[in-house]
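User: Hello! My lab partner asked me to get a predicted holo structure for this protein. The small molecule is zinc ion, SMILES included with the sequence. Please write out the structure tokens.
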Amino acid sequence: MATASKKAKVVKTAPDPYQPNPWYAVRNSKVHGKGCFARQFIPKGTRISEYVGDRVTWAEADARYEGYDVNDNHTFLFIVDRKTVIDGGVGGNEARFINHSCDENCESTVEKSRVYIDAIKDIQKGEELGYDYQIGRDKNDPPNVDEIYACRCGSPKCRGTMLFPAKRPKPKKKKRAAGKTAAAKRGKKVAKKAAKKVAKKAAKKAAGKKAAKKAAKKVAKKAAKKVAKRAKKTARR
Ligand SMILES: [Zn+2]
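Assistant: Hello! Below are the structure tokens for the protein in complex with zinc ion.
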């Protein structure tokens, strides 16, 4: 049975970005500041809008917002590629008001260095539009970056942050520390082996069985300590 004909027509070309958008209207949002809400039913696959604004280099964008409060996440910068950023705050359209959502009904696509917002689900009239910002983490992020980009989209799928990956990666220093531990472990193993050898020798020297055991234990302990110490030192290097 063909159901395609029953489906609403999917519009694959973006509306004129500088005219009022036929698909959504801007209103205050519970999620964050202003948001974009469907004026009408939007079929899955519809190209809702192009994200436009001043096209600048990363350096220019950085310089532009250098003096801004780092705790303000309300910038309209959209990363196009390694060279270009679109600043929706300068000469931009209303697409800049589409909020982040962890349960997105839209997605952003870059085609020939232009950015579009497409519906990836059927969107009912009145629904707020949202796409996953997936803001990349950067080594220059302020320590409270997770608070700045905390997500309050309210979806059951909310991962709590607009950042991606959601969890702060472990600093490299810790990784090196883990390496140390591994080396130390290896050292310990070597120490144990050496201690056993020494203990055996000591046991041979000792006359009685019991005495031998005791002596062996003592010597083994001492030897193990010594070797372990050395192993730790090597590991630290
Ligand atoms: Zn969320």
